[in-house]
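User: My instructor asked us to take a sequence, write out its structure as tokens, and then describe one feature of it. I'm not sure where to start. Here is the sequence I was given:
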Amino acid sequence: MTEQTAPSKFEQQRREKLDKIRQFDLDPYGDRIDGVQPAATVKAAFVDDAEGQTARCAGRIVLHRDIGKLIFITLRDSSGTIQLGLSKKILEGQWDFIKLVELGDIVVADGQLGKTKTGEITIWVESITLLSKALLPPPEKFHGLSDVDMRYRMRYVDLWANPEVMARFQQRSAMTASIRRFLCEKGFLEVETPMMQTIAGGAAARPFITHHNTLDIDLFLRIAPELFLKRLLVGGMEKVFEINRNFRNEGLSTRHNPEFTMMELYQAYADYNVMMDLTEELVCHLIERHCASQTLSFGELSIDYSRPWRRARYADLLKEYGQCDMDDMASVRKRAQELGINDVNKDDAVVVNEVFEATVEAHLINPTFVIDYPAAICPLTRQSKKDPRFAERFELFVGAMELANAYTELNDPVVQEANFRRQLRGQRDDETMAKMDEDFITALKYGMPPAGGLGVGIDRLIMLLTDATSIRDVILFPLLKPLSAKQEQET
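Assistant: Let's start with the prediction itself. The structure tokens for your sequence are:
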């Protein structure tokens, strides 16, 4: 058992104030409070020179100015801030207690609304109640917790210390709600599919493995919901979508978190062209509702989302930026070697795609649908009837980052089974992935309608629309490397 860490001198000082507050026979950790109004609502409804305006606001103290017989407090709630004015003359009976209230404490205050000489809307407090005594002091400046790593680790401080962080997550929630409304209005049914699966499928990625004790079986946290959503197409649900978590046991970066949110949908009797139209309409709908302009900043980039968006063939982009031709594999392999890509014992299609990723993606700043991928790397996609070397698949790139992936879905069970077996032969060294979803093949044998499927990375979409260049800035609690013992002590 580890020894309890001794409180810092700052915490000890606050504990002493806590003891003094209890001596007033007050509960420093409060109770239910009714009738609380958001600070922004109170300020918006204020009428100059109108008498009898009152307010009740609750929140955290983020600024505290004590000038003797008058104290000014800035109170912050999830909607914004409002000033409290506390006068010893009005609050004589509470003044000794009020002198113990400090930065970081959560309080509720009632009083008359007015304006100070500087024009600040202020609640002139007639009653104040402590709801939660903070035993740790806030950052030195309530404007912000500046250490980026600590902001992610202490999101519970970051949210109230940095108003722009709260605003971004409020935007995320509003945008996700808009996505749901948009799809529901188009006749899509929101569903939920298993997070734990007996077979890891639907994407080429390394899964997380867990174990179910009662059944004594290993299970996989899902890497994609695709195969279950397609089962619903077989069952007669013609337009379905899910917004939920996927898990991939892979690297961490500014664009990758092992646990991330995806929106995946399927529409019967559609194809990848319908998915392109839907994606463009959805993203532009979000920009119209939640952004100030169709041209948005993303770090140092300026991205123009004006419609129509560019649609470019994979092979043409490889020629344009990769300076090689898919029809000439010698030129592709030579280009791979020039780029330092190891092409030994790799399938042609894999080498082509690695060259594409290395040479093309960085140039795709404005929204670009990259269409018609090599069929060999698309085992779940219908091949093009015009040229079976290519699949009816697109990836949407924005800001040099993949945002969405879509197919004309393969619904031929014989071809699908052959593709799965071919894929598994290339994964013999990975026992966790070396299984085929036989039940999915059985489902296809009952008949799945022609369909289009689409997956959109919600985290990346929010990044782009809120100018957040790290995925950690749009995930409330991103996965981080554990602190060392020394770092924990310093924290």
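For the description part of your assignment, you could build on this observation: The first strand starts at residue 54 and ends at 66. Try explaining in your own words what that tells you about the chain.
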